[in-house]
Amino acid sequence: AGICATLAEDYGHWQHGLPDLIFWKHPATAVEAQEHTSPVPTEEDVCSSSTNAEVLLVEVKGPGDSLSIQQTLWIERLIGLGVNVAVCYVNPPTSTPENGLERQQGGGGKAARR
C-alpha cells in the first residue's frame, strides 16, 4: 500500500528507480508444502496469505554501475515503509562456464560456443 501511495503522491517523480526484482516467499505450512509441490505459488497461495509472506525487493548492479539518485530515494522510502530491500552487485565470471558459452560484448545478448 505504501508503494502505491508513494506513486500516487507524485507519479512524475517516483515513476523511475524502483528495484529490479521482487522475491516473494510464501509461508507454507508442513501440510501445504506436501500438497503443493510446484515452486511457483498459485494466485490462491499469494492472495490467501499475503499478510504473512516475506517480501524482498532487490536492485541489481553490474560492474561499473552505481545507484542513481532516484534509486537511492526509492530505497530510503522503502526502508521507511518497513520493506526489506537489498542491493546485489554482480561481477563478471572469472572463467568460462561449464556449458562452454561465453558472453560477447556488443552481441545483443547473444552467446557464442567456444
UniProtKB/TrEMBL annotation:
Transmembrane segments: none
Gly residues bias (residue ranges): 105-114
Cofactor requirement: Mg(2+); Mn(2+)
Enzyme nomenclature, EC number: 3.1.4.1
VRR-NUC domain segment(s): 2-91
UniProt-annotated stretches for the region Disordered: 92-114
Listed Pfam families: VRR_NUC
Compartment(s): Nucleus
UniProt record similarity statement: Belongs to the FAN1 family.
Protein name (Swiss-Prot/TrEMBL): Fanconi-associated nuclease
Native species: Rhizochromulina marina
